[in-house]
Structures are given as C-alpha cells and as structure tokens.
Amino acid sequence: MAKYDPLYDFLDRQTASEIIMSFGEIERIINSHLPKYSNKREWWGNEISNSSRHVQKYAWMNAGFRAEPDLAKNIVVFRR
DSSP states of 46-65 as a string? Predict the structure, then answer.
C-alpha cells in the first residue's frame, strides 16, 4: 500500500462536493506525518502530468477532487 492510499480511500467514499480537512486529520488518516514541504502550495498541486514527482496528488485527483490549501490555517479544501 502506498502512503497516501488511505487518503484516496477516505475521499473516494465521500459524497459531498467539498471536504475541508486539517493537516492533522490528513495525518491521522494516512497514519504518518505530512512532509515539511507540505506547507508549500506547490506540494498540493493538481497538475495532470503523470511525470510529476508529487505522488500524493493521485490520492485526491483519482478520487475526483482538487486540493485547495489554506496554508495560513493548515487546512485543505478538497473540491470536486
């Protein structure tokens, strides 16, 4: 299992078009700390390219969401 698969599983089960999660909630779901770089907007990128090194994006994008981080509040809004 990949590190972010539990996040995909969680998001894939959601029926709402918008899910707001704190970094702590995400860490509990993946049972691991987010990397220090997750405090950068680029880490939450929604790029379509398969050549991206940002493997975490597949957790939300494959579940049909885009990530919109609010770094000042340490939250992420996932929107369909």
Answer: ----TT-S-TTHHHHHTTT-
The candidate with the shortest Cα–Cα distance to 63, out of 26, 14, 3, 21, is 14
- pLDDT (tens digit per residue) in 23-47: 999 999 999 999 999 999 999 999 8
Question: Among 35, 12, 15, 11, which residue's Cα sits nearest to residue 23?
Answer: 35
| Residue type, position 42, single letter | E
**What is the spatial distance between Cα 53 and Cα 17, in angstroms, rounded to a whole number?**
27
CB-CB contact of 74 with 15 (8 Å) = no
Sketch the domain layout of the chain as residue ranges: 5-79
- Give the model confidence (pLDDT) of 55-75 as tens digits: 899 999 999 999 999 999 999
- Contact by Cβ (8 Å): 44, 69: yes
pTM confidence score: 0.91
